[in-house]
Design goal:
The complex is a heterotrimer of chains A (279), B (361) and C (341). With 361 residues, chain B is an alpha/beta fold. Chain B has 9 helices and 18 strands. In chain B, helix 3 packs across helix 4 and helix 6 packs parallel to helix 9. In chain C, helix 7 crosses helix 16, helix 10 runs parallel beside helix 12 and helix 14 crosses helix 15. The longest helix of chain C is centred in the middle third of the chain and has 16 residues. The chains are: A alpha/beta (279), B alpha/beta (361), C alpha/beta (341).
Chain lengths: 279, 361, 341
């Protein structure tokens, strides 16, 4: 499908949602000889926490007093395309696939750099991410993007309230963001300047299912596809070259079946064994 | 030492940090340093800090390195002492009211500044919410490698590199990560992975550790662009956060008093199957399963539940499942690591007695 | 559950009580007694379709649809585990020459109680010498949960995919375990391009008995009452075949409970209700268990995985000693399989 151009309306509040397509964790295979992940016959899925990010962004279209545009982007291989279309069916307005072999092998430093460069080129007022990805689970990309862009960051948000000032001319990203953060047993309300990068917690909302009216359009509308030449990046900072960390050893940890070990004896004896387990 | 005020950046304009070189090689120093960031929760040190100090001390002794703790907050004399007692050779204290509570901007700026001044080899941080908030940004500020949620840390005897072991893909894959050239080598570790430093725990014996306390003047740099409006403990019942769950099904015959006690004794919470909730033994926010909540505790102890699929989907992700049921053929036993065939009430009573006899730390 | 109020409100464009819309189990009891023959279930499903447009859907059903979309099943269990039930059974994928394609369905594949029903049916088919296969891990969801949730467009997408995969096997007859899969395959699939015949497990097994391919040799000396699953009896008139199977079992005493046949009650699992919470005083399954107790049955038999799981829960809570079994489990027992009752 031909790649299309990005549509931009300066009067719209643009929210960019970064999503990731990940392998299903229970199917992941490791080639211990080459120390790489085997992608063959492994089903993929959208990173589950990203649904909450999408829901948060799309619900802003309903909540805010001005036009909001939701753009979904991902850095990944071509197989990510149908997942971007799922986001469009949920309610996103435009999708951008950032794909190039040169970006492969990136750790979180190089990934956040590449995404930040794409966001810089697209222009946005707010970036929303899931709290972490189900594969690496580092939660480093959202703060990383914020740092590359020199924007505010708020991680582990469960609600967001925006008070953007009217956007005048080309000044993107004015106004304040108030977020409630979910910090385990503590909750915190924090206010930061826009533009900002936020990560949203799992369970912060109920991700809406596909909208019937959007299904046909989303399947056929052209997506924007950017490769290396479309982004103004320093090649020393992308992909494997731009990754300070590398994997030295990799092994499959079989998700163990339950042990099913019997504890025998009188209730007192069983209780003693349980007490040991509980310490 | 006094911190320099950074240049103000024009708002809305993206500035690329070209002033920091991409690779920071460690300067030759008398002794290389392992830094541990100690997070504060109000006036107390968050426990993971003590865990990391213990680990850092072990690594440092192995390789002839120094351990420096860095603690930021307000009212830090006691924490600084604890840091030395816990294994640090030096504590950098950044004490300022503006540093409570944690906010991203000043913490990142201060850490980055201190690290660029002192060039540590390794930086360890607890993978708490704010630890991850800070580590992710700091690693990019410093253009260095960060390995998250390590389950173990080693120093390679040949190369001197930090080897960080991590688990990914929901626990399905274990990897050893290194950061060969960039410094500091950063790693975050979840609370509870390493034991609390033995020195720290035993208190009395250590007393006489010596260390250097260095107060850092930070006033000018503490200028958070964030504003914390409120901060408090959550009110709503939320059993999904519990590390230990004591769960009751039909077989507990209403004895949720025992379950509450067991939960209290183990620092956990109570859960219930739908049958127990329907019977009126406990309210619905404790219900676990397909039409209740999905939990992922370290340990789930399930008393008197047969193990129907609509319930077990709520505890599948538990690390360890212990099941007690008087029916040896209960499907619940297929989903358990430890099987106790017996009367739920009898076992709960015995367990409660057993736990009250020995204190759990 | 005021059906008349609901339909009137919809007719006159008045605000509809969403609670009522979602409470419906689509059991068609109202349709059976409606003097005007109004397709009430269709109306309810259309109202549900409208509810999605204003985000009036229950969160539980949103989750169910994401399950079908992401995991291939409403229970949100991994696709790679769909054939776990068949681990020791050595069941092959379908061959062109198979007599039937056994369409297992999501509940019967993944729910641990329901898996026993599936295994029992497999044993019965094997004893009758039937050549059959399954679609395996790639078996698609039939989409019934999506239809009942009211998301028509997504249901059709799922259904078309299922039809494509079933027809690719070139097997002309599909046998289902669940009356729910059966319902959409009979009602909706032909209009979406399906050209295969669909039978419920009990219809097929009753036919095997009639053809002499199956003979029950082991007596099952129990008093059994049979609950008609609402989708089977009122939905499709499949009332006699399960009874034929039970009557063919030696020493089995079949007694009828109140409200049997087309007067049956829903167990509470229909219409997407299986995935949602119902208040204790609204549990239809509780009533059925009491009715079974009232005729002094030892076993309450059903022919639906949802009915079986619902009744077992109710029996447990209510302290009944009633044993809940699927017709297929009784049949397997009468063939000498399944020693444990």
């Amino acid at each position: 499908m031909k790649s299309s151009e990005v549509r931009s309306q300066k009067s719209e509040f643009r929210v960019i949602v970064c999503v990731k397509v990940v392998p299903r964790p229970e199917e992941v295979k490791v080639d211990e000889a080459t120390m790489t992940l085997s992608r063959e016959h492994v089903r993929s899925m959208m990173n589950p926490p990203d649904f909450y990010a999408l829901e948060e962004a799309i619900s802003m279209k309903e909540r805010m007093n001005q036009p909001v545009e939701v753009m979904v982007i991902t850095m990944g291989p071509p197989l990510a395309e149908p997942y971007l279309r799922v986001a469009l069916m949920m309610g996103a307005d435009q999708a951008v696939l950032i794909t190039d072999r040169a970006f492969a092998g990136a750790d979180t430093l190089a990934t956040s750099y590449t995404l930040a460069k794409a966001i810089e080129k697209l222009g946005a007022d707010l970036v929303v991410c899931g709290e972490e990805s189900s594969d690496g689970a580092t939660a480093q990309v959202p703060p990383g993007i914020a740092e590359w862009l020199n924007w505010s960051q708020v991680t582990y948000c469960k609600t967001l309230t925006l008070s953007p000032s009217p956007l005048a001319g080309e000044g993107r990203g004015e106004g304040r963001l108030i977020a409630w953060r979910e910090l385990g047993p503590i909750e915190e309300q924090i206010e930061v300047n826009l533009p900002a990068v936020v990560s949203v917690t799992v369970g912060s909302s109920t991700p809406r299912f596909l909208s019937e009216e959007r299904m046909v359009w989303a399947q056929t509308t052209p997506l924007v596809k950017w490769t290396l030449k479309d982004l103004d990046v320093d090649t020393a900072l992308i992909g494997l070259t731009g990754s300070p960390t590398r994997v030295e050893g990799l092994k499959r940890v079989k998700t163990p079946e339950r042990r099913r070990q019997r504890i025998e004896g009188t209730p007192e004896q069983q209780a003693a064994a349980l007490a040991t387990l509980l310490r | 030492m006094k911190a320099a005020v950074p240049k103000k950046k024009a708002p809305g304009k993206v500035v690329w940090k070209k002033d920091i070189p991409l690779k920071i090689k460690t300067k030759a120093s008398p002794k290389a340093e392992i830094w541990v960031w100690l997070e504060m929760d109000g006036e107390t040190l968050v426990t993971v800090g003590a865990e990391l100090l213990g680990k850092a001390r072990g690594l440092a002794d192995q390789a002839g390195m120094l351990v420096t703790a860095i603690v930021m907050g307000h009212g830090l004399s006691r924490p600084a002492d604890e840091a030395i007692r816990g294994g640090a050779d030096r504590v950098l204290v950044m004490d300022h009211p503006g540093l409570v509570p944690y906010t991203t901007t000043p913490y990142t700026t201060l850490m980055a500044w201190a690290i660029q001044k002192r060039r540590p080899e390794i930086l360890l941080m607890g993978a708490t919410h704010n630890g991850r908030d800070l580590a992710g940004r700091l690693a990019v500020r410093l253009k260095t490698g960060l390995t998250a949620d390590c389950t173990d840390l080693e120093l390679d005897p040949a190369t001197g590199l930090l080897k960080s072991w991590v688990v990914g893909f929901g626990g399905g894959v274990a990897a050893c990560i290194v950061c060969p050239q960039h410094r500091p080598q950063m790693a975050t570790v979840r609370p509870g992975v390493f034991p609390v430093s033995p020195r720290h725990a035993t208190g009395g014996e250590l007393g006489l550790r010596e260390g250097v306390l260095e107060r850092v003047e930070v006033g000018a740099l503490v200028n958070p662009s964030e504003k914390v409006l409120q901060r408090h403990r959550k009110e709503q019942k939320d059993i999904t956060q519990a590390k230990v769950l004591m769960i009751g099904g039909r077989g507990v015959q209403g004895r949720f008093d025992l379950l509450h006690e067991l939960a209290r004794q183990t620092g956990g919470d109570v859960g219930a199957t739908r049958v127990a909730v329907d019977a009126g033994w406990i309210t619905r926010e404790y219900q676990i399963g397909q039409t209740g909540v999905v939990t992922r505790p370290e340990t789930a102890v399930v008393f008197g539940a047969s193990g129907a699929t609509h319930f077990t989907v709520g505890i599948e992700k538990a690390k360890t499942v212990i099941a007690v049921n008087n029916d040896p053929g209960a499907p619940m036993f297929d989903q358990a690591d430890y099987i106790v065939v017996g009367d739920a009430v009898a076992v709960m009573t015995a367990l409660q007695r057993e736990l009250s006899a020995v204190k759990i730390p | 559950m005021k059906v008349r109020e609901l339909v009137r409100a919809a007719q006159f464009g008045e605000p509809v009580d969403l609670q009522t819309v979602w409470r419906c189990t689509t059991c068609r009891a109202c349709e059976a007694s409606c003097p005007h023959g109004i397709p009430i279930v269709d109306a309810v499903l259309k109202l549900r379709r409208e509810a999605w447009k204003v985000r009036g859907e229950p969160a539980a059903l949103s989750n169910v649809l994401w399950g079908i979309h992401q995991d291939g099943n409403p229970l949100r269990l991994p696709p790679s585990q769909r054939m776990a039930w068949a681990r020791d059974l050595n069941i092959g994928t379908t061959e062109k020459t198979d007599e039937i394609l056994l369409y297992v369905g999501c509940t019967a594949s993944y729910d641990r109680r329901a898996q026993k029903i599936t295994k029992a049916l497999v044993k019965v088919l094997r004893r009758a010498g039937v050549l059959f296969g399954v679609l395996g891990e790639e078996e698609p969801c039939c989409g019934e949960a999506a239809k009942m949730a009211g998301h028509r467009a997504y249901f059709e997408e799922v259904a078309r995919d299922a039809i494509r995969k079933i027809q690719a096997t070139q097997v002309k007859t599909v046998v289902t375990v669940s009356p729910h899969c059966y319902d959409v395959m009979k009602r909706d699939y032909p209009g979406l391009g399906a050209e295969f015949t669909v039978l419920h497990g009990t219809e097929y097994v009753a036919e095997l008995i009639r053809q002499g391919r199956l003979a029950f040799t082991k007596p099952v000396p129990r008093t059994v009452t049979y609950h008609d699953p609402c989708y089977l009896s009122r939905g499709h008139g499949v009332i006699e075949p399960p009874r034929e199977i039970l009557k063919a079992i030696p020493k089995l005493r079949l007694v009828e409970m109140a409200d049997h046949g087309t007067l049956t009650w829903c167990c509470g699992g229909g219409g997407g209700r299986a995935y949602q919470e119902s208040l204790p005083n609204e549990r239809l399954a509780d009533v059925r268990v009491r009715q079974a107790d009232a005729v002094r049955a030892e076993v309450l038999a059903a022919a639906c995985p949802l009915c079986v799981t619902h009744f077992e829960d109710s029996a447990k809570v209510g302290g009944s000693t009633l044993q809940v079994m699927d017709v297929m489990e009784l049949a397997a027992q009468a063939l000498g399989e399944n020693p444990k009752i």
